[in-house]
Amino acid sequence: MEKPKIILLKASGSEEFPKDFQKKYHTHIFCQRGSTRFIFNNRTFDCKQGEFIFWLADNAISELNFSKNFKATILFVDKQLLSDNYPNLNTATDAILHHRVNPILHPDKINKERILKNFQSLYSKSLETNNRFYNEILKLQMQLFILEMWDIFMDQLERRNRTLQSGTLYERFVHLLDLHCMKNREVQFYSDQLHITAKYLNQICKANTGITASQWIQRYTKDRIVLLLENKKLNISEISDEMGFSSHSFFTRYVKKVLGVSPSEYRNLVK
């Protein structure tokens, strides 16, 4: 039996989650009562009442625990359905990547209502299987869902960026990475923006995180390449141009360096 593409449920614990949900579904949790704790990318997170969790499929989630009074509305979206219907909005890339690192959203009252309405709208359309245009309608509703959620994510990202503008040198470097790593991959660019030497910027990053500025730049760039390659609506030349590479061959060499395979080979691996 084919697994459902959209699942909406009220849950009080993970025993109600679909089997292998971390591999098959993108998970959206709106905590309505109590709290939950989990480890994500080797960091411990706590989500409490009124907050929202977003886990992409294949994220490493462990030690998931719930308070006794936990209650949440949870939406599971088929991995392929979501990735096949990304709108062509590269401005949302930063919001997606931000939530790969910071999976908890703190929505205001209006956005809480928008989240729940968005959950219900997508789920309701997924049930209309007798409609002769079902597949087309579901794809359009999926795109609308993504745009609505991205708009909410962008609100939080913009608030975070305003805060980081007055932070430490390391925090300001991370903020600059968020803004510019699509097209700027040299340490010198960021050190010039911060009015310090490239050597000192590497020392700051090494002291704060154990890895250099150049390693951070490569990580951020790699994440964006992966995300763009997973969007099958963009061809490889468009991605190369979007990221400011001088030629398609240079982009291919860079991708091989960071991913170990060419752009087309990577796309074949994630089919």
N-to-C terminal Cα separation, in Å? 21 Å
For this structure, the CATH topology of the largest domain is Jelly Rolls
Work out the helicity level. Answer: 40-55%
Sheet with most strands: strand arrangement: 1-7-2-5-8
Characterize the largest beta sheet: strand count, sense, and whether it forms a barrel.
Answer: 5 strands, antiparallel
Per DSSP E runs of 2 or more residues, the count of β-strands stands at 8
Q: Give the overall average pLDDT.
A: 86
| Chain oligomer state | single chain
The CATH first-level class of the largest domain comes to Mainly Beta
Q: Count of helical segments? A: 12
Q: What proportion strand?
A: 15-25%
- Structural shape: globular
Question: Which class do the helix and strand fractions yield?
Answer: alpha+beta
The parts where pLDDT drops under 50 for at least 5 residues are none
Please give the domain count.
2
Radius of gyration: 20 Å
What string gives the helices and strands in order? EHEEEEEEHHEHHHHHHHHH
CATH architecture of the largest domain: Sandwich
Organism: Flavobacterium algoritolerans
Protein name: Helix-turn-helix domain-containing protein
Domain HTH araC/xylS-type: 171-269
Pfam families: HTH_18
Which tags fit this structure?
single chain, 271 residues, Arc Repressor Mutant, subunit A, 2 domains, five-stranded antiparallel sheet, globular
Describe it:
The chain is of the alpha+beta class. The protein has two domains: about 160 residues, Sandwich (Jelly Rolls); about 100 residues, Orthogonal Bundle (Arc Repressor Mutant, subunit A), CATH 1.10.10.60. About 55% of the residues lie in helices and about 15% in strands. The chain is built from twelve helices and eight strands. β3 and β4 form a beta hairpin. α3 packs across α5, α4 packs antiparallel against α5 and α6 crosses α7. It is globular, with a radius of gyration of 20 Å.
